[in-house]
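Internal ticket - ligand job 473, flavin-adenine dinucleotide:
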Amino acid sequence: MDEHFRISIVWFRRDLRLHDNPSLWNAVQESNDVIPIYIRDNPNSPPFTISPGKRQLIEKCLWALDQQLDACGTRLVILSGEPTDLFTMIKNILPFEAIYYQEQVEPNEIALETRVSSWARDNGVRMIPSDGLTVHRMREVFKPSGAPYTVFSPYYRAWSGLHISQPLPSPHNISSPVNLAKIMENDIPTPINASVNEAGEMAALNTMDVFFEKKLEKYPSHRDHPGIEGTSRLSAFLNLGAVSPRVVAWRCLKEQNSAMGGAISPAAVFLRQIAWRDFYYSILRHFPHVLSSDFKERRNTIPWENDQTLIEAWRRGETGYPIVDAGMRQLLQEGWMHNRVRMITASFLTKSLFTDWRVGEKHFMNHLTDGDIACNNGGWQWAASTGTDAQPWFRIFNPTLQGEKFDADGTYVKRYLPELNNIPSSLIHKPWVIPHDDQMKYGVILGRTFPLPIVDLTLQRARYLNMMRPSEK
Ligand SMILES: Cc1cc2nc3c(=O)[nH]c(=O)nc-3n(C[C@H](O)[C@H](O)[C@H](O)COP(=O)(O)OP(=O)(O)OC[C@H]3O[C@@H](n4cnc5c(N)ncnc54)[C@H](O)[C@@H]3O)c2cc1C
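stdout (structure tokens):
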């Protein structure tokens, strides 16, 4: 770019990092002075509330980002309110000429970008969008016809064939206007127990290093077993952009190159999951109707029952099916749930309790620290068989069989349901078969200390298949 600006704004959004941040990097190269800002609580009608865990993580990331910017010679200006009003206020004090920002995919964020762009046009300010939300730019992964992909496998083939460009370094010196303090509101409160190395991008990069050094090799065999800490735990950091998806993908390539030939390498298995994230972002960007209705529009006619008593039992983790209840309690306790268990609990809510997937989608967003509008929607529509590469409609997860297969010794279930601690592994996923006398022996009274199953799965299965058949014709 030939332009050079006296003062530019870097508008941090879901890119709370210095490394591989195209908006920050380009602004620093192309401007004399940079104003790093973050706008919180803008009246921008987000479709979901932010969970308490996610709110806390955002605060930690902002604090860490400010500390790192401080080390580069500037500060993070955090403001609240309508972005166009805030930009007007800043421009009156520090006449900036450009806004660098990362493009988003959610409809409400796109509407905000349009609003700010129109303000910028009226005020002689250049809007400079950049990528960085996904590994590959969205417009790079299209069908030869120019249409977006709607099925993962061909998307992934095209995605894998693209060159992953080298991540950008972090800037070391960032010059800001001397009177930056004039636009700062309050100091950013230090989060409890925060140290820069354990918050924000340093925490994210450490988590990534630990994964690649200690867990990657076994990822293909461990990733489906919720009792094992076998996955990266990067989701919340990726969601806020504390780690760049391109850096994660780049690291995978490095590992792949050093791997021996033969079977698909662990790094390739992991990279495929990162591609799912890119895929769901592309789906949301090009098919925003997924946020309110089924991706497969013919499915919009499913007569969901939405029984409030059953929904409440599911939310609380009191369905009587141990793997479902353990998952739902993990969500409430930790703001995270293992992927395999997300699939099981989502299938259970939709196909065994006949509940609209949007009910589950909202509950997850209310509690997940990694709540991600695109991935969550994709996951729910997959489980409900209404989405892109959805489960075949007739495939219904049986929580008992899933538990026996993926949590054979009950490690996971017992971690979140300590009331089942003394039940032998062979019975842990079907406690309702334990005779009354043995229940005393195992320290559990069914119906009192642990619920009896809230529905009969065989019956529900038959009802579900009957209900769905007409929409398949
Ligand atoms: C019903 C349901 C809801 C979900 N909601 C979310 C959500 O709100 N936020 C979210 O980040 N993921 C969501 N997922 C996807 C997946 O469960 C999480 O990304 C994963 O459990 C996060 O743990 P991890 O980082 O240790 O995963 P890893 O196995 O280490 O995967 C690495 C990264 O790849 C991406 N990824 C992995 N699996 C998927 C997937 N199936 N779809 C899209 N991206 C994936 C994530 O960014 C993840 O961090 C959902 C899945 C289902 C079935």
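Auto-summary: Residues 6 and 32 are 5 Å apart (CA to CA). The pocket of flavin-adenine dinucleotide is lined by residues 223, 231-235, 238-239, 273-274, 276-277, 280, 339, 342-343, 346, 364, 368, 370-372, 375-376, 378-380, 383 (CB under 6 Å).
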